[in-house]
């Protein structure tokens, strides 16, 4: 197998630099998305206290007894809210389930909001005090950071910097709190099988604990290693589709730990930023050229696309 040691790593870009030079930031982020489908983002403005609190509350939940956690495994939300026990999610086309349990937080919608017809209600674990507030604070902070990143994506694509604002307003974004328990020995299952994310972009916290790898275009698996507190960002299938594959939704996985780390849990918190449900994903004209004909001539709404994909991963 080819070694990855002589390869350049996914670049780290500073979101704080966007203010002084938005075009340079857009080129750095967009270039990394075009090359790897991933970027590492430092200085993202999500407060360390908010991150620490959200992570502490997630850990407290996962430490509860199994039967208590399973009471939050909902039947009606297609795996979009509440607790999803160990052994359910299976990467598209894979036989072995992922070695993880997780909790999904959606948009907190007020009573009577018409969007509740398409977005399931949140549930909250009564056993963990402050869980709701802590997770919604992180949801909101990651949504804000995501909007800043999308303005750079818009610039990179020669769109107006505010192009994506209306497309993600009231989007069906989901914060996933993940727990990968300790592992006895390696078997056929891994922590997260090779997959692509369905959504627009993903903002991932917690990947400083080793394991995350992306499938590079030459077939090598390349580790993605953010520094403490940094975000790993990746392009999802919806943005890939909108950009006619100019920005790449890259296959990634979470490998099992080295023997000396097997006794440790891994916790991570990806925020899957989504378009609003009725947004029509229709190939951007500037991403269609004679060399790159339109790969997706039939547009689809974000909602329909999501449900097509959820069925494939056995969540719907
Ligand atoms: O836990 C990680 O580092 C990545 C998780 C992931 O790729 C996912 O949940 O889609
Ligand atoms: Fe993923």
Stretches where pLDDT falls below 50 for ≥5 residues? none
Order of helices and strands: EHEHHEEHHEEEEEEHEEEEH
Kindly provide the name of the CATH class.
Mainly Beta
Q: Which ligands accompany this protein? A: 2-oxoglutaric acid, fe (ii) ion
Average of the residue pLDDT scores:
94
CATH topology tier name:
Jelly Rolls
Domain Fe2OG dioxygenase: 170-275
Organism: Sphingomonas vulcanisoli
Family: Belongs to the iron/ascorbate-dependent oxidoreductase family.
InterPro entries: DIOX_N, IPNS-like_FE2OG_OXY, IPNS-like_sf, Iron_ascorbate_oxido_reductase, Oxoglu/Fe-dep_dioxygenase_dom
Write out key terms for the chains shown:
binds fe (ii) ion, IPNS-like_FE2OG_OXY, binds 2-oxoglutaric acid, alpha+beta, 4-stranded antiparallel sheet, 2-oxoglutarate-dependent ethylene/succinate-forming enzyme, ethylene biosynthesis, DIOX_N, EC 1.14.20.7, Jelly Rolls
């Amino acid at each position: 197998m080819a070694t990855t040691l002589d390869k350049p790593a996914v670049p780290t870009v500073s979101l704080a630099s966007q203010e002084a030079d938005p075009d340079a930031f857009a080129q750095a982020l967009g270039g990394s998305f075009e090359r790897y489908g991933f970027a590492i983002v430092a200085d993202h403005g999500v407060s360390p206290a908010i991150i620490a609190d959200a992570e502490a509350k997630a850990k407290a939940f996962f430490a509860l007894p199994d039967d208590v956690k399973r009471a939050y495994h909902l039947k009606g939300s297609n795996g979009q809210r509440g607790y999803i026990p160990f052994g359910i999610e299976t990467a598209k086309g894979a036989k072995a389930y992922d070695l993880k349990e997780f909790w999904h937080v959606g948009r907190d919608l007020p009573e009577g909001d018409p969007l509740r017809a398409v977005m399931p209600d949140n549930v909250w674990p009564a056993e963990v005090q402050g869980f709701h507030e802590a997770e919604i604070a992180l949801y909101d902070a990651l949504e804000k950071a995501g909007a800043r990143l999308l303005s750079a994506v818009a610039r990179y694509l020669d769109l107006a910097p505010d192009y994506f604002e209306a497309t993600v307003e009231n989007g069906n974004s989901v914060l996933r709190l993940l727990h990968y328990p300790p592992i006895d020995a390696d078997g056929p299952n891994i922590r997260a099988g090779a997959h692509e994310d369905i959504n627009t972009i993903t903002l991932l916290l917690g990947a400083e604990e080793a394991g995350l790898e992306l499938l590079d275009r030459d077939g090598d698996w390349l580790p993605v290693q953010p520094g403490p507190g940094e975000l790993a960002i990746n392009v999802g299938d919806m943005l890939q589709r909108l950009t006619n594959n100019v920005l790449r939704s890259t296959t990634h996985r979470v490998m099992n730990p080295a023997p000396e780390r097997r006794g440790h849990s891994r916790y991570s918190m990806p925020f899957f930023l989504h378009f609003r449900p009725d947004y029509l994903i229709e190939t951007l004209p500037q991403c269609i050229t004679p060399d790159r004909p339109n790969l997706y001539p039939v547009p689809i709404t974000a909602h329909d696309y999501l449900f097509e994909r959820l069925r494939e991963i056995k969540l719907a």
